[in-house]
Design goal:
By secondary structure, this protein is of the alpha/beta class. Helix content is 39%, strand content 19%. The protein has helices at residues 19-26, 30-35, 44-54, 95-113, 127-132, 140-147, 173-179, 182-198, 225-239, 250-259, 270-279, 316-328; strands at residues 3-4, 7-11, 37-42, 59-63, 75-80, 119-122, 154-159, 162-166, 206-209, 244-248, 264-267, 286-290, 296-299, 332-333. A hairpin with a 2-residue loop joins strand 7 (154-159) and strand 8.
Length: 334
């Protein structure tokens, strides 16, 4: 049987940010049409406005469901939720835009659950606007988890030569350390192993960061967190046949991984994992939520309110997110 291009729903994110612009600019690249059947979930009026910033000549085609999409090169199909108007202030925190960003994602999840789309690719939202709009979540990942009923999940960042999966993410450093348990570390190691195996990497090499400087250096730093929280998980993973090493000092581990020693790093907290990826360039990283029953990828940058409306936002992270959504999406047979 032959397979067709996967159907990808692209959520607009916060409409006051750069999301509409990078979506329009992404559709100028032939690879989007050649590899996927992609359409936007958002507000058509906002996308029409963004054409002025990007000099896009694409026709905006409003649809009510994916079956109405044309998927033509000169057209951008948008499932228009009609939540915002084109007088929405650009580059400002807006409760209306925050609520709309939530509704775009909720609609995409609904479509994915009903198998009307094969994957979700998200433009950035603004956490402050999201919460002012009445949705008390730290970000996309937590919304996806709750609306899909997923309890065990993790954020994975993917960039050229570097993949990082996180034990904790959007919490303060003290809370993060308290949340790290052997059970959670083991589960994230298992998620990393299973995700890379499904992606075609046989017996992936996994490295686990320490919590403290120099991974505690045999008790010299910290209060035994590595021995209590990390090492038991690694020992259990090894017993399951997973190729995993650690805990290893984070200050050299990412260099070693980029060099090719490992396929993925398990990071203990947000900045430990995010900073090395973002050093490679904001346009290079892709955010993937693993452990969900649906495929979701995202740009690894924010709403960039400071440049919203100028048309200079770089679309390459969104293109890469779409590429990885295509790779991970289940294949439809024709």
């Amino acid at each position: 049987m032959q397979t067709t291009r996967p159907i990808i729903g692209i959520t607009m994110g916060d409409a006051a940010g750069v999301g509409p612009e990078i979506i329009l600019k992404s559709f100028e690249h032939d690879v989007v049409h050649e590899t996927s059947l992609s359409f936007v979930i958002g507000d058509a009026s906002i996308l029409e406005r963004a054409k002025k910033f990007t000099n896009s000549t694409k026709t905006i085609h409003r649809i009510e469901n994916p079956s109405q999409a044309k998927f033509e090169k000169d057209t951008i199909d948008i499932l228009d939720l009609g939540l915002l108007t084109d007088d929405l202030p650009i580059g400002e925190v807006s409760p209306e835009a925050g609520n709309a960003a939530f509704q775009y994602l909720a609609k995409a999840i609904e479509l994915a659950n009903e198998s009307e789309i094969d994957a979700i690719c998200t433009a950035p939202l603004n956490k402050e606007a999201l919460q002012k709009g009445g949705h008390m979540y730290p970000g996309h990942t937590e919304i996806l988890a709750e609306l899909t009923g997923t309890k065990d999940y993790s954020m994975m960042l993917s960039a050229p030569n570097l993949k990082v999966i996180h034990v904790t993410t959007h919490v303060g450093i003290i809370d993060a350390i308290n949340m790290i348990t052997p059970e959670r570390v083991l589960h994230v190691i298992q998620l990393a192993h299973n995700t890379l195996t499904k992606a075609g990497i046989q017996n992936p090499k996994i490295a686990v960061c320490g919590i403290n400087p120099h991974a505690g250096e045999n008790g010299l730093f910290g209060y035994g967190e590595e021995e209590e929280k990390v090492i038991p998980a690694i020992e259990k993973a090894v017993a399951e046949g997973i190729d995993v090493q650690g805990p290893l000092p984070a200050d050299t581990l990412f260099f070693r991984t980029v060099r090719g020693d490992f396929d993925i790093v398990v990071a203990m907290y947000h900045d430990q994992g995010h900073a090395p990826v973002k050093v490679l360039g904001l346009e290079a990283g892709v955010n993937i939520t693993v452990g969900l029953p649906i495929i979701r990828t995202s740009v690894d940058h924010g709403t960039a309110f400071d440049i919203a409306g100028t048309g200079i936002a770089d679309e390459n992270s969104l293109i890469e997110a779409l590429r990885q959504a295509v790779e991970l999406a289940p294949k439809r047979e024709v």
